[in-house]
Design brief:
Elements (H helix, E strand, L loop, with lengths): L1 H5 L2 H17 L16 H10 L3 H10 L3 H25 L16
Helix pairs in contact: 3-5, 4-5
Length: 108
């Protein structure tokens, strides 16, 4: 009982008030890259399915399965490899690649 008498209420509540702030700091600081766009044609959908079996895409998928940290760390590389494999398939089929601006690569 003496413990509660000698400690100030602010000192007792400080750990309870600081815990949510510390846990909020553990969240990912950088945003996740946007997901890949939906296919615009049946041919692009087929190429996205074929891209899943590309060796580079498979390699990054396996790296993502290693841990939760690896999933976040390799997500952008996985999306880039998937986009590259899809574009390679589209160009092999003679279909024009989708235009636009190159996606922004987040710094690590």
């Amino acid at each position: 009982m003496r413990f509660f008498v000698t400690q100030s209420p602010a000192r007792l509540l400080a750990p309870l008030l600081l815990a949510p702030l510390l846990l909020a700091g553990c969240d990912s600081i950088k945003p996740n890259p946007p997901p890949l766009p939906a296919p615009r044609s049946p041919q692009e959908a087929d190429c996205q399915k074929k891209a899943q079996s590309d060796p580079a895409v498979y390699d990054f998928r396996m790296r993502q399965l290693a841990s939760a940290w690896a999933a976040d760390y390799y997500r952008q590389d996985y999306n880039d490899a998937l986009r590259t494999a899809t574009n390679r398939c589209l160009s092999a089929m003679g279909i024009a690649l989708p235009g636009g601006v190159e996606p922004i690569k987040q710094p690590r």
